[in-house]
Description:
The structure is a single chain. The chain is built from 13 helices and 14 strands. It is α/β, with parallel strands linked by helices. It has four domains: 5-109, CATH 2.40.50.140; 130-268, Rossmann fold (3-Layer(aba) Sandwich), CATH 3.40.50; 309-397; 400-450, no CATH class. The strands form three sheets. A five-stranded mixed barrel has the order 1-2-3-5-4. The chain has a five-stranded parallel β-sheet with strand order 7-6-8-9-10, sandwiched between helices. The mean pLDDT is 85.
Amino acid sequence: MKTTADEKYGQIFTVSKLTSEIKNLLEDNFSFVWVTGEISNLRGPGSGHLYFALKDEYSQISSVMFRGQVQQLKFLPRDGLSITGLGRISVYEPRGTYQIILEYLEPAGLGALQAAFQQLKERLQQEGLFDPEHKVSIPLLPKKIAVVTSPTGAVIHDILNVLNRRFHNIPILIYPVKVQGENSETEIVQALDDLGARADIDVIILARGGGSLEDFQAFNSERVARGIFRCRIPVVSAVGHETDYTISDFVADLRAPTPSAAAELVAPVKLDLQRKCIEMEARLMHGFKKTCTRLRNELLHLSNRLDDPRKELTRLFLRTDDLTERMNRAVLHLIQSKRNPLEWRVKALCSHTPRNVIDKGRSKLEKTNCNIINLFNKNFYLWRSDLKRISGKLHALSPRSILERGYSITLLLPGQSLVRESGAVIPGDSVQVILSKGSLMCEVRRKINE
């Protein structure tokens, strides 16, 4: 009796049929499974899908994740990264191979949020957003403080209590935002942009209370980080507790371990500040008095070295009188010395002089007399010019000459201390203004600091 192939070998499958049966069996029994392994041979073509092998020590399985699921990842897959994923088993019939189509991935052990945090931190750090040279110093005494946080809860109350206790006169602007959940990132970024455009804000506190890593998502987002970096006003990040760190902490100009600590960092204690001001004022006054004493001694020393101009003028006048007298005597002596021979000659000629000799002698005498007068005038003008020049130099060295040019000296009464700048007096002070002629007793009504 002849037997068929089915009777001899049992059911015979075609390759397509067998592959289809295996596909149905796998997909029915492994609809969705969790699998863990290490990424290898990662490829990301232009389609946006990811193709890679998921392997462990003994085996590997082809894996694929389509673009829609890739866009929802909170981290960036890379070769060598251990992950845990959820997917469904599928068989690629043309090749007879099976693969897992992944719907969800997270780094094994860390979690997606932690991995996303670490990757964003590394990327922003490489861009220089955390560099110290970008940090802006917090002002010692801000004229106005802005607080960006939830308007409800303990955080805002803690901040306000600390600020009012330390320096209750500082104006505070509360900018209410959501600190977690939908639209929280948008509201925080908008708050930073709005406050950064204002001229009356000196510092911003960005705060929220404690929570989990999931609660801190808004403060670990790239949008908020770049909003802080973009803000021209210094930002103090106060998110969570002392052990909590967020991306905003690294980008901000200053990190505070808690919201209450942020309030303490931006607002000084009023009494401490007043005490420091008093100490600085005392030091300034001491330095001012010391400087005045030193300058007074220097002025006295210079005054002693400078001769009295009146003494020099007296000496010059006496010398001028002496020279004038000597010149007169010389002229008279010259005239007398010339007159005696002339008289002798006139007498000699009188007995037997022709008129032309007399006329010639008279002309010579007149010429000599003219020369003497010219010589006298020339020397006199030269001496008078020297006298004026020396008098001018001495006058320029006199302190009174400075006052005659329109300047004045102002002394603070009653101590008569020298006033060099407007900061040395206050409205209501009495001052003495010394002029080139006389002085004025004045009262300060207003001062202009320029």
